[in-house]
Design goal:
- Helices cover 50% and strands 10% of the residues.
- The chain is of the alpha/beta class.
- It has 4 domains: 42 residues, no CATH class; 161 residues, Substrate Binding Domain Of Dnak, Chain:A, Domain 2, CATH 1.20.1270; 150 residues, Rossmann fold (3-Layer(aba) Sandwich); 213 residues, Rossmann fold, CATH 3.40.50.2030.
- The strands form 4 sheets. A 6-stranded parallel sheet has the order 6-5-4-7-8-9.
- Helix 5 packs antiparallel against helix 7, helix 5 runs antiparallel to helix 9 and helix 21 packs antiparallel against helix 22.
- Bound molecules: FE(4)-NI(1)-S(5) CLUSTER with Oxygen and iron/sulfur cluster.
- Iron/sulfur cluster binds next to loops.
């Protein structure tokens, strides 16, 4: 039997540790147990040299059999596998985007049911960004034309997607020169899959070219549009106070957890949960009210816009159920574990799936209908209310753990916080970086991973970097990990940030770690970097910025796509665990060295947090040197001769 880790090696926060222990006592099997049961990982898998692209295989590469039956070597096989991951990750973000585009189109055409355009200023700004002349047009007409532009981004067969034009000019020129600019999302993802079929692309460099191109349909297209539509329909996030960790669940209320990624359902649930009729129904079963809380990126979406508290990140989805206090967990797409109904069976919790493309044999499926959203949301809430009397008080143990946090840092917010309402500007940030009070910018993003001690790498790295005057931008489960540790409050700046960063944070009233949203909102980080470039004084291209991206505990294929679009944009990326490429020296060298010459950035595989801290600092200081902003002011002692020369 493989060895089981003690709870404190599985998770780094006390609430999670307590629930891991409770799960064991209650007979619930969680992801950590299953990770331990999996034992040592298959080397052919982690090395990326297992190929099942055709049915002569599966083939695996070993010293004795260095070629698959078709002759594909380790380089080809590992690169093909990696490209498929990028295609899957980009497809996930972009399909999520497609759903939002369809909803946006329906709203524009007056078929949007309970959805409206909430932020017309954002709509008009987006229209201008995507080349729609909005002047003099009514909002719905602007939306209709913009929806058409967005729809074309999926179907474009030739040329390149329009969203790329939001990137800085020099980066667009690099993409053009390298033929990296993708055509439509659908065509690009289809091409990626085609190229990985047996007997097509065998050049690992060409396959990575395809991976970078495909990833751009995510970061500089699907995710960018998903963020824009989210803001238009549901409101552009502004700073909002809330709380994070399992302690946000309430013993005397009906607890409803939203989990997944698509914001349309949760937006309406947030409204439905405040409905007086719903509240009366909850009281009628003896509860004091309805408590809506989130898990994963759906949590980030409703947190940013409504201040709805966050119960946890990826690896707390099962642990939330283990509290015994959750009436219903509502899932949609992505990162919702297959195990949820199994864990729920130990308690009274109902798992409800809502997407026709994401069902579970053991869960109840209630299809969510956009055109009848409020009624659907209320029907689901009613199921939660009806389930409240089934709660078994002997099984309830909500950890007394929650930290205050401030989220909602859209770029619009950062602009006005830095520059003031009347002089919105990134200038103070650029000035602080140029003067050295802030050394640089780190984007810490992505998941947590059941094979690691959850959240430990993310939170240690974040604390150490702010201490070294590096401002940290976050999204996804990494942001929630830091929220649980109290790092997302302005007060954290006082205690933990270095002197320079602290001064800046105090002056403008921001935390040293900025929560910028869900994983599709990594597009906000890309745009923040662009606004820094536009402001001037820090180079012309992303590759010149003292900035770096880090995914410390990533696990999802979506993170593979995200890593690629950051590198394709010229931003180095540190990965806390390597891609499945170590079986190919050539491919690993290509990703971690050669790409530097080609796109101006590369990947770093760094599993040790201390080494990651060192690499971040070195990288940022090297970029500062190249920009010439690390120049020491030389103090010259003048003698009489010098003085006479100065006078002439
Ligand atoms: O899209 S960070 S575990 S929830 S994949 Fe998933 Fe990873 Fe969390 Fe959001 Ni992103
Ligand atoms: Fe084997 Fe080649 Fe088929 Fe892959 S594509 S399974 S390496 S024969």
């Amino acid at each position: 039997m493989p060895k089981e880790r003690p709870p404190q090696d599985k998770a780094s926060d006390l609430a999670s540790i307590a629930m891991i222990e409770k799960a064991a006592a209650d007979g619930a099997i969680d992801a950590f147990c299953r990770a331990d049961a999996q034992g040592v990982t298959c080397r052919f898998g982690t090395d990326g040299v297992c190929c099942r692209m055709c049915h002569m295989g599966p083939c695996k590469i070993t010293p004795r059999s260095p070629l698959g039956i078709c002759g594909a070597n380790a380089d080809t096989i590992a690169a093909r596998n990696l490209l498929r991951e990028v295609a899957a990750g980009a497809a996930a973000h972009s399909d999520h985007c497609r759903h939002l585009v369809q909803l946006f189109k329906a709203v524009a055409e007056g078929r949007g049911g309970d959805y409206r355009i909430k932020d017309e200023t954002r709509l008009r700004r987006a229209a201008r960004s995507w080349g729609v002349d909005e002047v003099g047009l009514p909002a719905l007409e602007v939306a209709r034309q913009l929806a058409e532009v967005f729809t074309k981004e999926f179907s474009l067969q030739e040329g390149k997607v329009k969203t790329l034009e939001l990137a800085p000019g020099p980066r667009q020129a690099i993409w053009d020169r390298l033929a990296l600019a993708p055509r439509g999302i659908d065509a690009t993802v289809v091409e990626a899959l085609h190229r990985t079929v047996m007997g097509v692309d065998h050049d690992y460099r060409n396959l990575i070219h395809a991976a970078l191109k495909t990833s751009l349909t995510d970061g500089w297209c699907g995710s960018m549009i998903a963020t824009a539509i989210g803001d238009i329909l549901f409101g552009t996030p502004k700073p909002v106070r809330s709380r994070a960790n399992l302690g946000v669940l309430e013993a005397k209320k009906v607890n409803v957890l939203v989990h997944g990624h698509e914001p349309s359902l949760t937006e309406i649930l947030a409204i439905a949960a405040r409905d007086p009729q719903m509240l009366a129904a909850a009281k009628a079963v003896g509860a004091e009210g309805i408590n809506l809380a989130g898990i994963c990126c759906t949590a980030n979406e409703v947190l940013m816009r409504h201040g709805v508290p966050v119960a946890g990140n990826f690896l707390q989805q099962e642990l939330a159920i283990v509290t015994g206090a959750v009436e219903v967990m509502i899932t949609d797409v992505q990162c919702c574990m297959a195990s949820l109904p199994n864990v729920a069976r130990c308690y009274h919790t109902k798992i409800i799936t809502t997407s026709p493309i994401a069902k579970n044999v053991e869960a109840e499926a209630v299809e969510f209908d956009d055109s009848n959203a409020l009624d659907c949301a209320k029907a689901i809430l009613r199921k939660a209310i009806d389930n409240y009397p089934n709660r078994d008080p002997r099984k309830v143990a909500i950890p007394d753990a929650q930290s205050p946090m401030v989220a909602g840092f859209s770029n619009e917010t950062i602009f006005s916080m830095l520059g003031g309402t009347f002089r919105k500007s990134f200038r103070p940030l650029n000035d602080a970086i140029i003067s050295g009070r802030i050394r640089g910018i780190a984007g810490i993003v992505g998941c947590n991973n059941a094979r690691d001690c959850t959240d430990a790498y993310i939170t240690t790295l974040t604390k150490e970097l702010i201490q070294r005057d590096i401002i940290v931008l976050q999204t996804g489960c990494a942001a929630i990990a830091c929220g649980k540790q109290g790092l997302l409050t302005p007060e954290a700046a006082l205690h933990l940030a270095g002197n320079g960063l602290r001064e800046v944070c105090e002056a403008v009233g921001i935390p040293p770690v900025l929560h910028m949203g869900s994983c599709v909102d990594n597009s906000r980080i890309l745009l923040a970097a662009k606004f820094v470039l536009d402001e001037g004084g820090l180079g012309n291209d992303f590759s010149e910025l003292p900035a770096i991206g880090i995914a410390p505990e990533w696990m999802s294929e979506k993170a593979v796509a995200i890593g690629h679009y950051f590198v394709a944009s010229g931003v180095d990326v540190i990965l806390g665990r390597p891609f499945y490429t170590l079986g190919s020296q050539a491919l690993t060298k290509y990703l971690c060295e050669d790409l530097q010459e080609i796109v101006g950035a590369k990947f770093h595989y760094i599993s040790d947090v201390n080494q990651a801290i060192e690499t971040v600092v070195e990288h940022i200081e090297r970029k500062r040197d190249a920009l010439g902003i690390n120049r020491k002011l030389e103090r010259k002692l003048y003698d009489m001769k010098d003085r006479r020369e100065l006078n002439v």
